[in-house]
Amino acid sequence: MKTLILAVLLAVPAPFAAATGEGDGDEAFPGLIPAGGIMLFYDSEGPLSFVSMTPKDVPADARQLGTVKGVSCQHGLSIPIAANIRATNVTGGYGDGSFKKALEQIKKEHPDMSGVYDVRTDLRIFSILGIYRKLCTEVTARAFARPQ
Amino acid sequence: MRKLFVFPLFAVMLSGCGILYTDIKVPRGYRTSSPSEVKSAPDDPTATGKACNRSALFLVAWGDGSYAAAVRDALGTRDGIMYDVRADMKVNAYVLGLYTKVCTVVSGRVAKP
User: Fold this and answer.
1) Is the pTM of this model over 0.90?
2) pLDDT per position as a tens digit, B33-69
3) What are the domain boundaries of chain B?
4) Positive or negative, the Cα torsion across B58, B60, B63, B66?
5) Which residue of B has its CA nearest to A127?
6) If DSSP codes are grouped into helix, strand and coil, which group holds residue B15?
7) Are strands B99-111 and B60-64 parallel, antiparallel or unpaired?
8) Per-residue pLDDT reduced to its tens digit, B91-101
């Protein structure tokens, strides 16, 4: 029982990166790359909330641009300072995984874009040995442009 | 000594990631439309799509369980917008979780864009 409780406590930080979705309520959960232990450096930006448009909000004179996709990423390093399972890690995080950056990337690919709707946001989690981690925000949406 | 292995094993099992390698996509947010927000019609078809992440032996985790993949699966070759969407999560775990499949399932109706 004690082992199970300790394991649950250990797992608590993991879902922080793994499945922090936007709930139905008013609460917003940041999707920041986790950093524990001895944090040497942290300069990261992550998604918080995005109240996106639905087809009803699209202006009548809009021109459809089809499905678009934008990705923005945060990176993290976590290096154990001893060959022990309970050893403290030296950690660091950097990058811009914000909605803003992902939308800027879409805008760069479609300069005439005015807005997006029917937005799906997902997180991509990439990790090797838990030492290097990458957390990307992926925005998939339909885009539209308005006449100049 | 045994506990040293049990702790991380449980931790990994509960988080759905692999110790050695992880490359998964998890759903975060999807503000779906209601029937009044799209060009809905009574004969709009119903569609269901599924997207999954998998993990084996708690060591590796892979897959694409994103909303984008689930909606892509639901729409298939159709060009449409899903509305009245229900999103669910389906988990299959076998042999004490040595093989785990976590799927995002979206079901709803498809309107013309």
Assistant:
1) no
2) 888 888 888 888 999 999 999 999 989 999 999 999 9
3) 2-111
4) positive
5) B22
6) helix
7) unpaired
8) 888 888 889 99
